[in-house]
Automatic annotation (TrEMBL):
Keywords: Endoplasmic reticulum, Membrane, Transmembrane, Transmembrane helix. It is found in: Endoplasmic reticulum membrane. It holds the Pfam family EMC6. This is ER membrane protein complex subunit 6.
Amino acid sequence: MPSELELQISPIVQESLVHNSRTLQNLQSLTASLFGVSAGILGLESYDGFLFYLAFSLLTSALFYLVRVAPSSLTAGPRYFRGPFEFWAGGLMNGLAGFILTWTLFYGLVRA
Protein backbone atom coordinates (compact mmCIF):
# COMPACT_ATOMS: atom_id res chain seq x y z
CA MET A 1 0.00 0.00 0.00
CA PRO A 2 1.55 3.34 -1.02
CA SER A 3 1.99 5.94 1.66
CA GLU A 4 0.04 9.18 1.73
CA LEU A 5 3.08 11.16 0.58
CA GLU A 6 3.62 8.86 -2.43
CA LEU A 7 -0.03 9.20 -3.41
CA GLN A 8 0.20 12.99 -3.20
CA ILE A 9 3.30 13.06 -5.38
CA SER A 10 1.95 10.69 -8.05
CA PRO A 11 -1.73 9.91 -7.52
CA ILE A 12 -3.10 6.72 -8.99
CA VAL A 13 -6.81 6.80 -9.67
CA GLN A 14 -8.46 3.39 -9.96
CA GLU A 15 -11.03 4.68 -12.45
CA SER A 16 -8.21 5.83 -14.73
CA LEU A 17 -6.59 2.40 -14.57
CA VAL A 18 -9.85 0.73 -15.55
CA HIS A 19 -10.54 3.24 -18.34
CA ASN A 20 -7.06 2.90 -19.85
CA SER A 21 -7.20 -0.89 -19.70
CA ARG A 22 -10.67 -0.98 -21.25
CA THR A 23 -9.63 1.37 -24.07
CA LEU A 24 -6.62 -0.77 -24.93
CA GLN A 25 -8.67 -3.96 -24.69
CA ASN A 26 -11.33 -2.57 -27.06
CA LEU A 27 -8.64 -1.57 -29.57
CA GLN A 28 -7.02 -4.99 -29.43
CA SER A 29 -10.35 -6.81 -29.83
CA LEU A 30 -11.30 -4.71 -32.84
CA THR A 31 -7.92 -5.10 -34.53
CA ALA A 32 -7.92 -8.87 -33.81
CA SER A 33 -11.08 -9.22 -35.90
CA LEU A 34 -9.56 -7.10 -38.67
CA PHE A 35 -6.41 -9.24 -38.59
CA GLY A 36 -8.62 -12.33 -38.87
CA VAL A 37 -10.27 -10.90 -41.98
CA SER A 38 -6.83 -10.15 -43.44
CA ALA A 39 -5.43 -13.60 -42.64
CA GLY A 40 -8.51 -15.28 -44.16
CA ILE A 41 -8.36 -13.25 -47.36
CA LEU A 42 -4.62 -13.92 -47.68
CA GLY A 43 -5.30 -17.64 -47.27
CA LEU A 44 -2.94 -18.15 -44.36
CA GLU A 45 -3.04 -21.55 -42.72
CA SER A 46 -1.80 -23.09 -39.49
CA TYR A 47 1.18 -21.43 -37.81
CA ASP A 48 1.45 -18.73 -40.46
CA GLY A 49 -1.92 -17.34 -39.40
CA PHE A 50 -1.06 -17.38 -35.71
CA LEU A 51 2.31 -15.74 -36.34
CA PHE A 52 0.51 -13.11 -38.42
CA TYR A 53 -1.81 -12.44 -35.48
CA LEU A 54 1.04 -12.32 -32.96
CA ALA A 55 3.18 -9.96 -35.04
CA PHE A 56 0.41 -7.53 -35.87
CA SER A 57 -1.00 -7.54 -32.33
CA LEU A 58 2.40 -6.59 -30.94
CA LEU A 59 2.73 -3.97 -33.69
CA THR A 60 -0.64 -2.53 -32.68
CA SER A 61 0.47 -2.32 -29.04
CA ALA A 62 3.72 -0.65 -30.08
CA LEU A 63 1.89 1.92 -32.21
CA PHE A 64 -0.57 2.59 -29.38
CA TYR A 65 2.38 3.09 -27.05
CA LEU A 66 4.16 5.47 -29.44
CA VAL A 67 1.06 7.52 -30.29
CA ARG A 68 -0.84 7.68 -26.99
CA VAL A 69 1.39 6.70 -24.07
CA ALA A 70 4.91 7.95 -24.82
CA PRO A 71 4.05 11.60 -25.68
CA SER A 72 1.87 12.04 -22.60
CA SER A 73 4.51 10.57 -20.30
CA LEU A 74 6.91 13.31 -21.39
CA THR A 75 4.57 16.22 -20.70
CA ALA A 76 1.74 15.39 -18.34
CA GLY A 77 2.97 12.35 -16.44
CA PRO A 78 2.58 8.68 -17.36
CA ARG A 79 -0.68 7.05 -18.32
CA TYR A 80 -1.31 4.24 -15.91
CA PHE A 81 -1.85 0.58 -16.66
CA ARG A 82 -1.80 -2.33 -14.28
CA GLY A 83 1.58 -3.49 -15.54
CA PRO A 84 3.78 -3.89 -18.60
CA PHE A 85 2.61 -7.46 -19.23
CA GLU A 86 -1.02 -6.34 -19.39
CA PHE A 87 -0.11 -3.55 -21.78
CA TRP A 88 2.00 -5.58 -24.21
CA ALA A 89 0.44 -9.04 -24.08
CA GLY A 90 -2.89 -8.73 -22.27
CA GLY A 91 -4.90 -8.37 -25.45
CA LEU A 92 -3.40 -11.42 -27.15
CA MET A 93 -5.68 -13.87 -25.38
CA ASN A 94 -8.67 -11.51 -25.35
CA GLY A 95 -8.69 -11.07 -29.12
CA LEU A 96 -7.73 -14.61 -30.06
CA ALA A 97 -11.30 -15.93 -30.26
CA GLY A 98 -12.41 -13.07 -32.52
CA PHE A 99 -9.34 -13.55 -34.68
CA ILE A 100 -9.97 -17.27 -35.16
CA LEU A 101 -13.66 -16.71 -35.85
CA THR A 102 -13.13 -14.13 -38.59
CA TRP A 103 -10.06 -15.93 -39.92
CA THR A 104 -11.94 -19.15 -40.55
CA LEU A 105 -15.02 -17.33 -41.85
CA PHE A 106 -13.16 -15.32 -44.47
CA TYR A 107 -10.85 -18.22 -45.35
CA GLY A 108 -13.94 -20.31 -46.07
CA LEU A 109 -15.59 -17.53 -48.08
CA VAL A 110 -12.53 -16.87 -50.23
CA ARG A 111 -11.48 -20.49 -50.79
CA ALA A 112 -14.98 -21.92 -51.36
